[in-house]
Amino acid sequence: MDINNSTVSRNIRAVIDLLAQGGIYDPNEASAKNLDMPSVMEHVVLVHGDLGTGERLQGAQLWRSIEATPWDHFQHIIFIPGLFHLKMACADALWRYETCLMQDISLLQPKETGIYCSKPGFRHMHQAIAHTGTCQRLDCWRVHVSKRFPGVTNLDAFAALQPTLDELQSLAAELSLTYVAGHTLGHMRQKPHKEQDIQYENSLLLNKYFSLYEELSYAMNQGDIGRVKTCTILWIPILKALGKHKYASHMTTFLSNVHFVYPEGLRRAIRYHMLVNPTGKAMKWHAVDWCVKYGGKGVNRTMERILLESPLVQTYHMSQSVVQKNFLHTHLSVKHADPNMTKTFNVLLTQLTNHSPHIFVPGRTSRYEVPNLTNKGQEMEKAVQGDRETAASNTLDTEGTGIAMEDVLVELL
Q1: Which of 33, 216, 257, 302 is surrounded by the most beta carbons within 10 Å?
Q2: Do residues 107 and 351 lie in contact, with contact meaning Cβ atoms separated by under 8 Å?
Q3: In this protein, which residues make up the domain named DUF6589 (predicted)?
Q4: Least confident of 107-116, 132-141, 266-275, 332-341
Q5: How far apart are CA 363 and CA 193, in angstroms?
């Protein structure tokens, strides 16, 4: 199937061709040709993709709403937003604050600052966010344990105390309440300037954004779809505040449908098919759109690309096998181990120790103040909800106007 899904008509053709490959045809055509196939009229087909695919499929259903049969309506198509594209949107949202990260990146990746200053890809952004967030959290641990345990000035000295797992969990809970922006941030920013510490407040917000991204990534890798949906609810106002209204709107509609519109059987099917684990290994879950688009190797699976590279891939595979067998490698693999970032992290941790962004210093200022995107997005949503209620009251609509994300969050928690 060599179809470019850039238009609504081509998306329709792609879906029909994919169903035909699975032995599902138009019921009228199947009956005319005496084809033995199950009826799709009482079933649904889950389609994963980016927002562009979802909009075109919705457009196709709108175009075909006047047709005579359910097959022509395309009513069996249920679109599921790709979680990998959502993750890329979240990374791009954090990258809007590259001015807050460039100094850290210059220490973590000094030879790749040109890439980060131009147009870094998702892999570079993901790596920078993960490494910077890790160093920020390690500095929070250093500051907190130095306050709790007199005489402990660094994490090595704290590790020498051999704390128990319960103690570490208790300290982690204290860290999340102390060094991550919460409801107290608004009160802090309402104080006089002499009593504020802008750098400390910026660090609290950055820790919040980094932690949300880290939790979303971890939940996707672990296959914890419940946590993924909980994180998505927290990301919706952030995406809305940064102007990514399509992602916020589509994810809001999708979560509302999954929890309040679709029947229980369909809800269960969607939950169990949002993430897949092709290898069956722990922490190797992937979004379906990631598997479809990249296949785990970062190659565009277009027809031209496959025809061009298939002979080269076979030749490379054969040469690798010959070399590995001649050198008697015990396991045939080209996968490298994760890099050891200890020395690199120590450079950034030294920088954080010298500047102490997680120690409150009254009157300390900053050239840039990180905004509270969660509050901004929630205020925008309340304004939109107020307009909807006003429009509903003007049209004498007394049946309610919609479902709020708080309702979905209550179900998840």
Answers
A1: 216
A2: yes
A3: 1-336
A4: 332-341
A5: 6
Would you say the pTM of this structure is higher than 0.85?
Answer: no
Rounded to 5°, the CA angle 330-336-339 comes to 135
Residue 31: CB partners within 8 Å, gap ≥ 6? none
Helix (H, G, I), strand (E, B) or coil at 36: coil
Coil, strand or helix at 286: strand
C-alpha distances out from residue 192 to 179, 355, 360, Å: 21, 23, 15
Nearest by Cα to 344 from 105, 103, 120: 105
User: Which residue shows structure tokens 């504020």?
Assistant: 196
Asked if 221 and 376 count as a contact pair (C-beta separation under 8 A), the reply is no
Q: 187-196: per-residue pLDDT in tens?
A: 999 999 999 9
> What is the DSSP secondary-structure string of 189-253?
HTS-GGG--HHHHHHHHHHHHHHHHHHHHHHHHHT-HHHHHHHHHHHHHHHHHTT-HHHHHHHHH
Q: Is 231 exposed, middle or buried (0-12, 13-18, 19+ CB in 10 A)?
A: buried
Q: Which two tokens stand for residue 163?
A: 């704390």
Contact between 250 and 398 under an 8 Å Cβ cutoff? The reply is no
Confidence of residue 160 (pLDDT cuts 50, 70, 90): very high
Closest CA to 359 of 192, 212, 147: 147
Among the listed residues 214, 216, 191, the one whose alpha carbon sits nearest the alpha carbon of residue 201: 191
| Angle, vertex CA 376, rays to CA 99 and CA 123, nearest 5 | 40
pLDDT, the chain, mean: 84
Burial (CB count <10 Å: 0-12, 13-18, 19+), residue 79: buried
What phi and psi, each to the nearest 5 degrees, are found at residue 306?
-65, -45
pLDDT by residue (tens digit) across 235-257?
999 999 988 988 999 999 999 99
* DSSP codes, 66-112: GSSSHHHHTTTEEEEE-HHHHHHHHHHHHHTTHHHHHHHHHHH-GGG
- 142 Cβ neighbours under 8 A, 6+ residues apart: 154, 155, 349, 353
CA dist., res. 277 & res. 291, Å (int): 10
Q: What 3-state class would DSSP assign to 341? A: coil
